[in-house]
Each structure stands twice: as C-alpha cells, then as structure tokens.
Design goal:
By secondary structure, the protein is α+β, with helices and mostly antiparallel strands. The protein has 6 helices and 13 strands. The chain is 19% helix and 27% strand. The strands form 2 sheets. Strands 1, 2, 3, 4, 5, 6, 7, 11, 12 and 13 form a 10-stranded mixed β-sheet that branches. Strands 8-9-10 form a 3-stranded mixed β-sheet, with helices on one face. The protein folds into 2 domains: 191 residues, no CATH class; 69 residues, no CATH class.
Length: 286
C-alpha cells in the first residue's frame, strides 16, 4: 500500500508475508505524487491539527540516536540515514554530556544511541537522564510478523498454474482491477483487497492463478490512503516522524509527542480507527 506512502511492486521471489507498505523516510514522504488533477481528496482536514507539548517529564519510547554534526546535539526521533557517519536531525538537545554517556565519532560527527528522560518545550529536549545503549535493558516485546492471509480457507484450484510467472501475472492483473486496494503474499498465498465485488475480482484473478488465493473487501483504496497520508504530512508538519500503511484500511502515524489530542483529531477528521497515532515521547509515570 503506502510507503510512508506507495505500494511497492511485489515480486514472486518473496515467499514470506509482505507488509502492504513500510515506513517511509522524510524524503520518500515528500516525493509521493499528489492526487491527479481534478481528483477529489478522500477527506480534507476540517481544522488545524493540535500541537501538544508535554507539561512534565517525558522519556523516549526506547533507544534513540543523539547526533551532533558540529552545530550541537540533536535528538533524532525519525528516520536515520544508514551512512557512516549516520545522518539525521531533530529537536535540539540541552543538558547532554557526551563524556558521561560515551559516543562514536567520524567525519566531524559525534553520535550514539540512548534512552533519554527529560523535558520538551516543543523545540528543545532538556536531558535529565541518559542511559547508553550498552546499559539499556528493554522489556521483552513479542516479535511481530507479516500479514496473515485474508481468509482461513485459501486453497489451490490448479497447482500447475502457481508458478512465479503466474504469480507475477496475477499481481499485475490485481493492480489493474478498477476496485483494487492492495495485495500481499503469505507463504505462497496471494491476498487481494478490493473495494467492490470480491467474487467478481476472484473470478478474474483465477484466470491466471491456480494457487491459494484470498480476495477480501475493504473501504479504502491505496490511492485513498495515499491522499490521506499526504494530508497528514501537510497538517502535522514536523510533528509527524513516520507514516504509512501496514494493513488494509489503516494508516500508522508516529509523532514527536501526543497527549491524545492528535489521535482525537485524526479520529474526528478521518473516522475512528483509520489512523493510529503513536508518540515517540511518553510521559514519565509517577
């Protein structure tokens, strides 16, 4: 579906479940083509998005990169370019002492990964505690896998027509359906989501695919989600760190900080449950 916005082509060589889209970087977000001229927007934001600022101490939700390119340390809450040295940017960091926490240096850049606690005024994160990655002990979290098939009873009708070439042809045929929303693979099963008649879509796809197939109905197409995603980027601006779709009829948006007001705003604007907001900074309890 979307990579912070667009569904990438699925190749037959992939055998494991594929996400509909991956989180996109800031450059990918802004490289998405806008809706075609004359095409109505799926939804237009009805009001300015809130810009909450925490009124107490907050902590990062896990390890984050702190990087100083020579102009002062910055808190990288979004994407970090996998170069050497790495590249990223974010709010300014105050009260941070590299000598106490340890860091790497190369090419005039100093950086490291830390779990931070402090205060955030909307532009500057003032550190009160920093735990280096080597000393960080995160709670065990369950592993998350890819999407499961869209149905529980996917069966092959003609195993002889389930070759990689057949899969490619079927995915191409799916994307050409007028009601196409998205598609994904799970251990050799093709799942296709459409906004219209699922039975008619399945009959069309069975002309090229004899392997396991699931066709399901959703409300939003890939184009719909892409349009909403672009609107979020405009409305939330620098508050938005990453956004994209990993499941049908949904978008995930990570923001710098949300006290619940951004989630309420997207629910009111786009419908409850369509956009799931997560916060990179969490209030310190107690």
């Amino acid at each position: 579906m979307i990579l912070r916005p667009t569904l990438r082509p699925v190749v037959a060589a992939l055998l494991l479940a594929l996400p509909l889209a991956a989180c996109s970087t800031e450059s990918e977000m802004r490289a998405v083509d806008p809706a075609a001229p004359g095409e109505p927007s799926a939804t237009t934001p009805s009001a300015d998005a809130p810009t909450p600022v925490p009124d107490g101490e907050v902590q990062t939700s896990g390890l984050v990169t702190v990087l100083d390119p020579g102009t002062g340390p910055q808190l990288c809450l979004g994407a970090v370019a996998e170069s050497y040295p790495p590249q990223c940017g974010g709010p300014a960091v105050a009260g941070f002492d590299w000598g106490e926490v340890g860091a790497e240096e190369a090419g005039g850049v100093t950086w490291g990964q830390y779990a931070l606690t402090g205060t955030f005024d909307g532009t500057t994160f003032t550190v009160t505690d920093a735990v280096p990655a080597a000393l960080y002990d995160p709670m065990a979290e369950p592993e998350t896998g890819g999407l499961e098939p869209a149905c529980d009873d996917a069966a092959a009708t003609d195993p002889a027509r389930a070759t990689p070439e057949d899969m490619d042809a079927t995915l191409a045929a799916a994307s050409a359906l007028p009601t196409y929303a998205t598609a994904w693979l799970t251990r050799g099963t093709i799942s296709v989501a459409v906004t219209g008649d699922a039975e008619a879509a399945e009959a069309e796809l069975r002309q090229t695919w004899g392997g396991p197939l699931c066709v399901t109905t959703v409300e939003k197409t890939d184009a719909d989600l892409n349009t909403i995603n672009q609107e979020l980027q405009t409305a939330l601006g620098e508050q938005l760190l990453t956004s994209g779709s990993s499941a049908p009829d949904s978008l995930d948006a990570e923001v710098v900080f949300d006290d619940g007001s951004i989630q309420r705003w997207v629910d009111a604007t786009y419908g409850e449950g369509l956009v799931r907001v997560s916060s990179s900074l969490d209030p310190v309890e107690g």
